[in-house]
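Quick start: read one record
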Amino acid sequence: MARLMLMRHAKSDWYSGEREDFLRPLNERGVRDARRMGAWLARAGYLPRAILSSPSRRTRDTLKYLAEGAGARFGALTRFEPTLYLATVSEMRAVLAGGDVTDGVMLLGHNPGMEELLDWLVPAQELAGVEGKRFPTAAFYALETATPLAQLERGCARVVAHQRPRLLED
């Protein structure tokens, strides 16, 4: 079974004064949430072997604070893929197909693409228990699939873990 992890960037700062979407930083809540999620990833055993990330500032900042929260154990090979900035399902699948790591891969990106990929990979009945928005900022899903990551098909994965900052206790 291959493990694929999906994560959306943490909360960005719409009032930073940065006009360009690509360059928007995290706000204070985003920094806090990314650190908390990093600590949870380490405790729960979901540290990725490889990270394929959008190169936007908010995804880079999310990675920085995930690593701070996880501590020294967070040392995955990271590749910033321009295609992952606001990527579609087919673009994310193409990036995964071109990757060298076949297990323990985290995709870090943006909505609506992350939620669309989750909906494409996981049968709808399995996601029925997820309350509210499926992919709020800094949300995380660990998926398992018998299908190689380079050949993903609709409905081929199952959720083995799901977390979001709001569900974490302080």
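The two ends are 33 Å apart (CA to CA).
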